[in-house]
TrEMBL record:
InterPro entries referenced in this protein's UniProt entry, alphabetically: Desulfoferrodoxin_N_sf (IPR038094)
Source organism of this protein record: Sediminispirochaeta smaragdinae (strain DSM 11293 / JCM 15392 / SEBR 4228) (Spirochaeta smaragdinae)
Name of the molecule in the record: Uncharacterized protein
């Protein structure tokens, strides 16, 4: 079962609901759907490189 996050446009209150078919209300109005935070973000290839001296691509310049 999925989840959705909602935010009140008037007071800024945020809620996460399990029932994706029901839109919660706050301040007398339907709340606006907002994206959920990412659980896992794919690593960037640039940040995944190893910069140790034993690298196969080591050009010997330090």
């Amino acid at each position: 079962m999925g989840q959705k996050a909602y935010q009140c446009e008037d007071c800024g209150n945020e809620v996460i609901v399990d029932d994706v078919n029901a839109i919660p209300e706050c301040c007398g109005k339907a709340m606006k759907e907002i994206p959920l935070d990412e659980c896992i973000k794919a690593s960037n290839p640039e940040s995944a490189r190893s910069w140790e001296v034993e690298d196969a691509c080591d050009d010997g310049v330090h």
